[in-house]
Amino acid sequence: METLVTTILAAVLVLGLLIFVHELGHFLVAKLSGVSVLRFSLGFGPRVFGRRVGETEYVLSLVPLGGYVKMLGEDTELEDVGAAEITPVVTDPSRSFATQSLVKRFAIVLAGPAFNFLFAWLCLVVVAGAYGILKPVEEARVGGVSAGLPAEKAGIRPQDQVLSVDGEGISTWDQLSEKILASEGKEVVLGVDRSGERVDVKVIPEKQVNRNLFGEEVGEVYRIGIERAMQTEEVSWAAAPWLASVQVAFYSKLILVSIGKMIQGKISARELGGPITIARVAGERAQGGIKALLEFMAFLGVNLGVLNLFPIPVLDGGHLLFFAVEAVVRRPVRARTRELAQQVGLFLLVSLMLLAVYNDIYRWIQG
Fold it and tell me: Domains in the chain, please, with CATH?
């Protein structure tokens, strides 16, 4: 029960915060641009709670998977805002989103994904500055042992340091890896330092499928089932922003390449995760402490930023695409064209969400 409560609270925190940050980007830049913001909603569907402050109504809605900022002069105009809610300043055409310059409209839409990247960057700055960064140790020290594989069967333990292979001394992890890969499945004798005691361990490497970062098969290699030991390296707060920027760039590239490989069929669509997976992982990270939760929020924030920039109508990237076309042809895209494109985009988005939820349920059933 305690784990379930932690999972639910972590999921609400992570999703709620990421949605809030995204919509806050749209909201702040719209306000700075002089656009009337009629509603700031966390969630979709029926209103659960709301309060008007000035011209803006701040709302908590029933369905938590999303949110929106409602501005005067968007495609839906004032159709869902009651007449009693509209003040004279809100109806001022000069403060309509539609009457703003192309640059301002572009900036308002771009601000949502930009704030997701900024939030992810801030999380990673805190992680680097407060907790340092993990780096692999140079020496041949075992960080973990995989269950059921030769190393575990032979009695190798975490924190064992391998000093020799078949009597030949080694000093680095790379040297150990080379020796195992070159074994061709023959028994090797590892000279191990275990808490100051010298122990010889016989182990027979097994041929295993070699997979890259994206889970693709890239041949077969001999392994014994050990992981490299890691150590925490302190980072100054002055260096943390640059390291966080590098990590955000790495996450962005990883996500884009993964999506490209999924489209090509090189990665199974079953790898796509939805809200249930997010909730489960958020719960696991929360139990692992603040550092793990911040890293997960950063990765999820970059995900949200990247996906929202895809040129799919109904996403921010779709609106940016319309603005790009407008800049080229010197006139807005016709309303009917936008409407049809958004219907197609909504179909694609709903289809992806249904697939993600199906994958979530399938993983949950399979355990």
Answer: 100-132+236-367 (no CATH), 135-232 (2.30.42.10)
Per-residue pLDDT of the chain (367 residues; tens, 9 = 90+): 556 666 777 777 788 888 889 999 999 999 999 999 999 988 877 888 888 988 899 998 887 667 889 999 875 443 343 333 444 445 677 888 888 999 999 999 999 999 999 999 999 999 999 999 988 999 999 999 999 899 999 999 999 999 999 989 999 999 999 999 888 889 999 999 998 899 999 999 998 888 777 667 778 888 999 999 999 999 999 999 999 999 999 999 988 888 888 787 777 777 777 666 766 677 777 777 889 889 989 999 999 999 999 988 888 999 999 999 999 998 888 888 888 888 888 888 788 778 777 777 777 776 5
Residue 91's φ and ψ, nearest 5 degrees, are -90, 5
Amino acid at site 102: L
Q: Are 33 and 100 in contact (CB under 8 A)?
A: yes
Q: What residues form DSSP beta bridges with 203?
A: 188
Catalytic one of 2, 23, 138, 233: 23
23 annotated active-site = yes
CA distance 216 to 98: 46
Query: pTM of the predicted model, to two decimals?
Result: 0.82
Beta bridge partners of 206: 223
